[in-house]
Amino acid sequence: QVQLVESGGGSVQNGGSLRLSCAASGRTASTYKMGWFRQAPGKGREFVAAIRPEGSGTDYADSVKGRFAISRDNTKNTVYLQMSSLNFEDTAVYYCAAGYAYGVWHSWGQGTQVTVSS
After folding, report:
1. N or C: which end of the chain has fewer CB within 10 A?
2. E strands along 25-118, which residues?
3. pLDDT digits 0-9 by tens, 45-95
4. In this predicted model, what pLDDT tens digit does every residue of 23-41 receive, in sequence order?
5. What would you report as the CA-atom Rg of the chain, rounded to the nearest whole angstrom?
6. Which of 8, 116, 104, 117 lies closest to 47, judged by CA?
């Protein structure tokens, strides 16, 4: 288990960009897959992106492919989500998660709000 703390959320105009960060604590943080999920008002939590422990493999939801990029710096135990071409449908609370490489997501951050406005 690790502790995760997100930062970088805020308000951005339609078409703008934002970068989220997630700092992980614990010696084994670099051994976990890391991911981002989001939950919009009135909707369930949905997968956004994930990255393998070594950082060589990534996966994205269809809705964000080509617009979002996930990366990690294991020397800093930090994972990032670079979001571009944001639209109103991207408004949500974004959660960072850590999981076993081929298993469940076992640790979650507290979430950071992203609001896209006109």
Report:
1. C
2. 33-39, 45-51, 58-60, 68-73, 78-83, 92-99, 105-108, 112-117
3. 999 999 999 887 999 999 999 999 999 999 999 999 999 999 999 999 999
4. 999 777 788 999 999 999 9
5. 13
6. 104
